[in-house]
UniProtKB/TrEMBL annotation:
Its EC number is 6.3.2.1. The reaction proceeds by a bi uni uni bi ping pong mechanism. Catalyzes the condensation of pantoate with beta-alanine in an ATP-dependent reaction via a pantoyl-adenylate intermediate. Belongs to the pantothenate synthetase family. It comes from Parolsenella catena. ATP binds at residues 30-37, 147-150, 176, 184-187. This is Pantothenate synthetase.
Length: 302
């Protein structure tokens, strides 16, 4: 496995693979990799001849008061994980390689990005769409892999790819959790022992909400109230949002009808903001219910 830092090196390698007729998968990450990232890389390696992992803490998706400086980093450990998972190349650029000092072009989305995380993080999705577009242009992959953990991001990327005609298949992958239910996240490292225990209120609320919906509850408020009550019972937790939206358009809904829904939350545990969610598709009650389009399901991989 190679680790490179320049755009030119990535392009040269990908062109060489293309000349051999090989397919390429891309897994964009911000590093400090864990089993959640690994699941994306393993899936990409199973479905493509070569896998590129980008390992870049993207400054344009962080707001001025957010954790850009303190975001955890361990490139050596990341390289080991990538190699074990089957990546062929890790792209680890400096911010100056990705953004010229006078860069002023962004990819902005009018809809989908003003709800959920977009309300608390107003420039976040502009940064995500911009860096993912740049990575798509640099790597030109056949497929790109994203986790359902960041479900709004997955919906936003699917919309961007459709709207801007990227010839890339977007593959969504299920949320990987710790044994006790907490969704794996690089930010879990910020939690003290006491906060780590408190953080379980997110997955408890997700599982409870999902169970209610699977048992037939169709009223969003009833489900959300039950989920909020679980989180509010935890003294260290402060809700940013707990909402139910139409998964494709990220617009709030009152009733679950016949389109896939995303039930998503962001919760502060102390100073750390964590997210979690479940997706439900009434049309696929027997299946995983994510309702994603494309060749493979973003939750169960079917
Ligand atoms: P990040 O490094 O946090 O930007 O995440 C890079 C990719 O890994 C995104 O597509 C995330 O959705 C995905 N990811 C992060 N955590 C998980 C997880 N626990 N399970 C599955 N995918 C994840």
């Amino acid at each position: 496995m190679q680790a490179v830092t320049t755009i030119a090196e990535v392009r040269e390698q990908v062109k060489a693979w293309r000349r051999e007729g090989l397919t390429v998968g891309l897994v964009p990450t911000m590093g400090f990799l864990h089993e959640g990232h690994k699941s994306l890389i393993v899936r990409a390696a199973a479905e493509n001849d070569r896998v590129v992992v980008s390992d870049f803490v993207n400054p344009t998706q962080f707001g001025p008061t957010e954790d850009l400086e303190s975001y955890p980093r361990d490139f050596e450990r990341d390289c080991k994980l990538c190699e074990e998972a089957g990546a062929a190349l890790v792209f680890h650029p400096e911010p100056s390689e990705m953004y010229a000092p006078n860069a002023c072009t962004y990819v902005n989305m009018d809809e989908l990005t003003h709800e959920l995380c977009g309300l608390t993080r107003p420039i976040h999705f502009r940064g995500v769409c911009t860096v993912v577009s740049k990575l798509f242009h640099i790597v030109c992959p056949d497929r790109a892999y994203f986790g359902q953990k960041d479900a709004q991001q997955l919906a936003v990327i699917r919309r961007m790819v459709r709207d801007l005609n990227f010839d890339i298949q977007i593959v969504g992958c299920p949320i990987i959790r710790e044994e006790d239910g907490l969704a794996k996240s690089s930010r879990n490292t910020y939690l003290s022992a006491e906060e780590r225990t408190a953080a379980l209120c997110l997955s408890r609320a997700v599982f409870a909400g999902q169970k209610m919906v699977e048992a037939g509850e169709r009223d969003a408020k009833t489900v959300l109230d039950a989920m909020r009550a679980i989180i509010e019972a935890e003294p260290l937790a402060k809700i940013d949002y707990v909402k139910m939206v139409d998964f494709e358009n990220i617009v709030q809904i009152e009733k679950i009808e016949n389109v896939p829904v995303l039930c998503a939350m962001a919760v502060y545990i102390g100073k750390t903001r964590l997210i979690d969610n479940f997706i439900y598709d009434p049309a696929e009650d027997a299946g995983c219910g994510c309702g994603c389009s494309g060749d493979s399901c973003c939750c169960c991989g079917a």
